[in-house]
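idk why but the lab printer keeps eating my pages so im just putting this in chat instead. protein + heme C:
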Amino acid sequence: MTSNVSRWALLSLMLLLVPFGASAEWGALNMPQGVTEISNEVYTLHMRIFYICCAIGAAVFGVMIYSMFAHRKSKGVKPATFHESTTVEIVWTVVPLVILIAMAIPAARVLIKMEDFSDSEMSIKVTAYQWRWQYEYMDSGVSFYSQLEPSHNEARQMGSDVDLEATFSPSRKRGDSEGGVYLKEVDNELVIPVGKKIRFLHTAADVIHSWWVPDLAVKKDAIPGFINENWALIEEPGVYHGKCAELCGRGHGFMPIVVRAVPQEEFDIWVAEKQLAMASVSEQADRQWAHQELVSVGEKVYQANCMSCHQAEGQGIPGMFPAIGGSDVATGSIDKHIDTVMNGIDGSMMSQFSEVLSDADLAAVITFQRNAFGNNTGDTLQPSHIKSLRNGVDIRAPESVALLPDTNTTTGVN
Ligand code: HEC
Ligand SMILES: [Cu+2]
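predcted complex ->
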């Protein structure tokens, strides 16, 4: 009997120890402490409540185990027969109440602080799309899209023979290997200055997403039609990773976030460079492009934005994504092709790209599709054509909007 009990005790102990032996890094099990004041406060709160839970657990299970062992039936102990002890009832109401209040006060303080957007020095609007983020710096007008780094996107494709272990680095620190951490890098990082209170405005353009960067203690739902607020003040320069934390469809696992916090001077240079690049994008739309130039730029745009569905050789996936090679759209009327890419196809996975791609990128990818994968229409689509389409009637607006009466001709309205 005794040997049986001790054998069970030993086995349970071994089972309990298994997870501890396996996890070399304790920190990896816990919540990260993060790099902002709020994230540190959240961490402290989390640890304090965790220890309170441990103490309660130890006390409750201790009393239970002691009672079961010391007063067991086999020792001839008779159960007590008392009922309705007012003292006990008061104690087990008051003690948890005091513990709850002791936890709620500091928790409420941190929550209120998290919701305090006053004195923010900079605002960034973050719009979530399936499956990319758009960052708009409200103060400087800088705006760009950020999505999974193309080399990672390529590696994750079905049948890709990229050696993940050799290409990507296992740790979270960037720079360990050229490829960065698999599925955690983006093409355009969100760059922000250190030491500034930055307000984030979250919204989404299609379904619900959630912008989550654990090191900043920021996790906010991005909901179409709503603006949610959030803020962060990072003290130390560094690179912080995050991801979308709301199941948002097929590509949910492939919308990482990278925040790079840099000193103010470095940030100012970055903003100036971005503004210059944005100006040159609009210049690019005005010049005349060579056919071959459009095709080679288009190939890169295709790889970054279209290949995950239409596949590397433009063969598509039968039943899911149509092939581009030999497609009626990519070899037929170019207007239909432009409309498909710019506006997407309602109710399908083919989303609109007019917001996401520049005039030059749109013209390039369409030219590429009409002259690759065995399509040889010989067509060349100039970026200026896309630009004129955008500047003319807003082809994205629903018809009802286009038909609204012109206020100038309506009597009584100025
Ligand atoms: C998320 C998956 C996805 C991505 C990414 C995607 N497409 Fe599509 N695409 C589709 C689907 C699905 C259809 C078919 C829609 C339908 O007909 O209902 C389609 C249809 C098309 C067609 C019409 C093909 C035909 O023969 O009907 C063209 C052209 C096209 N896409 C171009 C592009 C371009 C250019 C890009 C990148 C800029 C792109 N697509 C990115 C899913 C995607
Ligand atoms: Cu998402």
